[in-house]
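On clarity, I found the account of how folds are encoded harder to follow than it need be. For illustration, here is how one protein appears when written out as sequence plus structure tokens.
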Amino acid sequence: MTTFDAGDVTLSEVEEFVWEIAREDGMNTPARVLASESLLEAIADDDTLRQIRNVTHLPGVVEHALCMPDGHQGYGFPVGGVAAIDAENGCISPGGVGFDINCGVRMVKTNLEYSDITGREEELVDALFDAVPTGLGGGGVVTGDAETMTGALERGLDWAHEAGYATRDDLKHCEDGGYRPDAEPEKVSQKATDRGRNQLGSLGSGNHFLEVQRVTDIYRDDVAATYGLEADQLVVLIHCGSRGLGHQVCSDYLRRIEEEHADFLDDLPDDNLAAAPAGSELAEDYYGAMCAAINFAWVNRQLITHQVRETFADVFDTPWPELGMELLYDVSHNIAKRETHEVEGEEREVFVHRKGATRAFPAGHPEVPTAYRDAGQPVIIPGSMGAGSYVLRGGAESMDRTFGSTAHGAGRLMSRTQAKREYRGEEIRSDLREHEHVYVKAESGATIAEEAPGVYKDVDEVVRVSEALGIGDTVARTFPVLNIKG
């Protein structure tokens, strides 16, 4: 048996690409890391392995706490962490969701080809940058008055559809239909609501982006056809979340947990794992507020989609429906949801925490949209500004291995602080344009430096592991043409 030693953490390879941290005192289950040896070496460079081991200390964790191939150090849970926790006798952890509740990604298709944009890159990137608010702080597409905020928090994309910002097909091609019925806007603090009021329809900053891409490779012709993808097609990727509202929701409930369940925290190895006991008033309040923030994030991405459609229509002087700008799929990757899974031969309701991990339900699963049920749920895995992104489908092994989950991106190799020491934004922008024909526009050069291609893991390797384990099958690869960052 092959072992991997990383300081005070030792892993054993139980099968190819599956590494296990054995159960020890305080751990309720073993922990598993899904990675090749090269990815594991990168994962071991920060605190990821200790963090996934710590997750197993949470009451009610079942089977294994899991780290996806793109894992890296996070807050409490590692980014790339997945844990299913018993919904009756366990807990729910804001640290297992993160501050950017329902950070997620969506892909919008077009019927344009790469040649249609050649020579017009600067025109389009400037127009999109002007149309979609970016950066820290305020700026949104709509004014978040009381009625708008209540509608977005309570009803998600149903509200966006009624307000004229979404089509009925948009709802049919979004995880959960773009609506969490358990949302309770009254559980969202006034401070959180105020922070989100002027941010509906904005990218924010950090690793969030809007990217026009071209489809470079098709790996499964039949599934790609079902998804409406073909070689040389232009698509748009939108990656953002719940902005300041989600951040404040997380902060509010972490503070309440510290005040109301300090004894619960005393038994955990990391205060950042702060959790509320299942069935407690606080757990129910957090779940309702989190679901409201989830709905807010879906509306946020939908309003950006609206702006993108209108911008394409203006630039190409063609109504957006005639440009084929339909939503392929929108999938979340910072979320905790009540789901039913088979655990030790029995169906159990669990809170599946996906922190920087993507739901990846296989063909035939009843929660996969009807249009894709025979093919499997679309999974979107972004790379970096200088690398490809991937469209996968939920793999046949995902339910047994990972509670229906896979990676959410390439995963960072270095911190933003280190990135700004090692890279210069203008140099990255120039290199990408000169060598890769990628046009990047951002609020500042520092943002570009923080997101330089070199700060990310090899997305090809991440996807290779996902495919090999049967948790996500490659369907298509894309490559950036234009990139907008906050």
In short: DSSP finds 17 helices and 20 strands in the chain. Residues 3-413+456-485 form a domain with the tRNA-splicing ligase RtcB fold (CATH 3.90.1860.10). The chain has one domain: 3-413+456-485.
